[in-house]
Design a protein that fits this description.
372 residues, two-stranded antiparallel ribbon
Length: 372
């Protein structure tokens, strides 16, 4: 075992072309003070044409061909067992590794003697302008509060959330996070062993939130490293069968709630959500956005720091944020070639005072496949 090595694990399902490009970027990235150990691809019963492409992988990549789609958690754990390096990097096939992806993560892991989980800043576009924040985690009443918020029965939390995102993205040292995405996650092998890896009861989605919750409960740091960057195009496998992906996401949430909350709490949540969904819509936020198309140019409202955010919901509880340097910003055109059709919301916000943000414009974009 190389004491400075990092094993890499991919779980692939019908995303082999993206996988090939990701592995190529991984092998091209510099290794500053560490070496790449084993690189393992667990293929979860992809189609025959996708399986054939796996033969194009470099010889140093180990491929495990599963006869059945056993899910992300099982695949990750299976791949991790094939290596013995002190660090394991889990990567989705739709990621692109940059020169500054791994070195800051490895440095942060060493500072915690291998007992930590660390995630990079994830960009959704090749130009690295729009990035996702760390995961909120999954709270018992989160969906209830979002429903109340969306119907005008709870205070607007979007700028408070933006304040937290801005503080994380401006950080120059690893920052504690509630949860990290399993799409690009570095974990020390001692921490992985202590946690028993991913919980294999989760097929797809929420397994990363569960892993991070268990880590924090054991005092294992969960850290967001803003100066480690990776491109994660996102949801490329799940878009192949959105119905299955949505079912898996709902099942993952239910598994999480059953695992971490008792029957009384779950019953209270179900009743509260049913009540919240019956409430009338007291605000027109879902209908207030100015209609734009994908070529729209956002204008900086003042010399103050500003952001452009994009999400599926006008609540902006989860989405991608850009911090433009100039006076204008346009959403990356290549992004729309990958997005699912439907309504997307965008907004401009500016920092009116230190750590206080105000929304300055709300927009709605109806994305269709043929618009790009």
């Amino acid at each position: 075992m190389n004491g400075n090595a990092v094993d890499v694990v991919y779980v692939n399902y019908n995303s082999t072309a993206l996988l090939l490009a990701s592995v190529e970027s991984l092998l091209a990235a510099p290794c500053d003070g560490f070496a790449l150990g084993s690189i393992v691809v667990v293929d979860n019963a992809s189609r025959s044409d996708q399986v054939a492409l796996l033969d194009s992988l470099p010889p140093r990549v180990t491929v495990i061909r599963s006869p059945n789609n056993t899910g992300f958690a099982v695949g990750c754990n299976l791949g991790a067992k094939r290596g013995d390096a002190p660090a394991i990097l889990f990567l989705n096939p739709d990621t692109h590794v940059l020169a500054d992806t791994l070195p800051p993560l490895v440095q942060g892991l060493r500072a915690h003697h291998g007992r930590a989980l660390l995630g990079p800043r994830q960009f959704v576009d090749a130009a690295c302008t729009l990035s996702f924040a760390p995961l909120h985690g999954t709270s018992l009443m989160g969906e209830v509060m979002n429903t109340l918020w969306g119907r005008g029965f709870a205070p607007d939390r979007s700028c408070r959330d933006l304040r937290e995102r801005a503080a994380l993205w401006r950080s120059t040292t690893p920052q504690a996070a509630r949860a990290l995405s399993g799409g690009a996650l570095l974990i020390g092998r001692p921490a992985h062993a202590e946690l028993g890896g991913f919980d294999e009861r989760f097929f797809l989605y929420v397994e990363d939130t569960d892993l991070c919750l268990r880590a924090r409960a054991r005092g294992i740091p969960v850290l967001y490293v803003a100066n480690a960057r990776v491109v994660h195009y996102g949801d490329q496998s799940s878009q192949q069968n959105e119905g299955v992906a949505n079912t898996a996401a709902a099942a993952g949430l239910q598994s999480y709630l059953h695992k971490h909350h008792g029957v009384v709490a779950r019953t209270a949540r179900r009743l509260a959500l049913a009540l919240a969904q019956r409430l009338p819509d007291r605000q027109a936020r879902w209908h207030q956005g100015v209609a734009i198309d994908h070529t729209f140019t956002f204008q900086r409202p003042s010399p103050k720091p500003w952001v452009v955010e994009m999400a599926r919901s006008p609540l902006f509880d989860h989405g991608a944020t850009a911090f433009p340097d100039g006076a204008t910003y346009r959403l990356p055109s290549e992004l729309f070639r990958r997005l699912r059709p439907g309504a997307y919301f965008a907004r401009i916000a500016e920092e009116v005072r230190a750590d206080e943000w105000r929304e300055r414009g709300l927009y709605v974009l109806q994305h269709q496949d043929e618009c790009v």
